[in-house]
Amino acid sequence: MRNEDLYKSRSFAGCIKSACDMVVTNPIKILKATWLPTIILAIAETFIMLTYIPDMTITQFGFSYPALTLTLMVLCWILSVIASIWFISSIYRLVNGQSFKETCKRSAIITIFYSIVCILISSTLAYGSPAFATFLIKHKLMAAPTAITGSYLTATILAIAIIAALLPAVSSGTEYLVEKETSWRNILGTGYKRGWKHWGFLFTTNLMTLITATCFGFLCLLPLLIIGGAQTANQLGMLNGDPNGAPSYFRWLLIATSIITLTFMNYIFLWGCMVNYYAMGSINQREEEKAAAKSNTTDNMPLIYE
Predict the structure, then answer these.
(1) Do the beta carbons of residue 265 and residue 221 sit within 8 Å?
(2) Helix (H, G, I), strand (E, B), or coil: what is residue 303?
(3) DSSP state of 187
(4) How many other β-carbons are positioned within 10 Å of the β-carbon of residue 269?
(5) How far is residue 192 from each of residues 111, 159, 166, measured CA to CA in Å?
(6) What is the CA angle 252-34-81, rounded to 5?
(7) What CA–CA distances, in Å, run from 204 to 105, 117, 129, 171, 192?
(8) How many Å separate Cα 161 from the centre of its chain?
(9) pLDDT recorded at residue 256
């Protein structure tokens, strides 16, 4: 399903349109290649989500069997990582023509890379802010309210700076997944430098993709948000002494809704990957055209003889 017209100079709108065309014109191929890892990933995401939604039964089980609960949570995260690697490899096998083993290896490297980035950003927000605020208050550099506000603002700015600095890695990472000759060093090497030259294009493309995905994602998530909100309200009411107002099958309804909803969300993510696939091709083509134009200019320069 590799698009021979990949390396073509496109605008951000052209990249989005090309991704839409690919998804719309090849739904059967995409579903055949991705349905199983997509559903398994949605199941893993659902189990992780359940740990964040109030549920008295799950909470009591956790207090009664803490070691088993911790083990199950770790297994869910491991399953999620494995499913993510499988899911990403299934996406890019559609366009790279490589073996399953090779694509999985590259997908694993990309998943680990982005996991480290996510951990770095979340750690900055979760631990950096309180630590910085404590430092400011302890040394009496700021009043407590100002220090807390300032520390969270600083951490947020730092997290945004990390995201901005790593935006070119979206293009270089995509190139690593698509092109067999590309080394993993390309993620923060030549491909990263090439992407940095087109940072504005990548930013605009991903911003518009994010806005579009958010609109469709909200519609997909709406049933889950409603059922999850009802579950939360019911559980909080039970903590206050109210009777359980949910039917016995409500938890299973929540799980089923979550799996279906997150499956759709994963396919929205697939579309976003295709947008960056075309964005990478556009960047590489622009660089090639720029190099060719520079070469032609040099060749056409008149020779000056003394």
Answers:
(1) yes
(2) coil
(3) G
(4) 16
(5) 17, 19, 8
(6) 70
(7) 30, 21, 29, 13, 17
(8) 17
(9) 93
pLDDT recorded at residue 305: 43
Q: Average pLDDT in the 266-290 region?
A: 92
Q: Exposure of 120 by Cβ count < 10 A (0-12 exposed, 13-18 middle, 19+ buried)?
A: middle
Segment 105-128 shows an average pLDDT of 83
Per the CB < 8 A criterion, the answer to whether 96 and 2 are in contact is yes
Q: How many CB atoms lie within 10 A of CB 42?
A: 21
Residues contacting residue 89 through CB under 8 Å, at least 6 positions apart: 37, 100, 103, 104, 106, 107
Query: What Cα–Cα distance (Å) separates residue 94 from each residue in 35, 54, 82, 207?
Result: 13, 39, 19, 24
All residues at 6 or more sequence positions from 90 whose CB lies less than 8 Å from its CB, including other chains: 33, 34, 37, 38
Q: Please name the residues in contact with 114: beta carbons below 8 A apart, sequence gap of 6 or more.
A: 173
Of residues 178, 176, 196, 179, the one with CA closest to residue 187 = 176
Q: In which region does residue 11 sit, left (phi positive, over 0), alpha (psi from -120 to 50) or beta (all else)?
A: beta
Pick the residue with more confidence: 132 or 7?
A: 7
Q: Which residues contact 16 (CB under 8 A, 6 or more apart)?
A: 205, 208, 209, 212, 275
| Residue 300's pLDDT band (cuts 50, 70, 90) | low
Percentage of the chain beyond pLDDT 90 is 41
The pLDDT, as a whole number, for residue 306 is 43
pTM: 0.84
Span 166-176, mean pLDDT? 91
Nearest-angstrom CA–CA distance, 235 and 297:
71
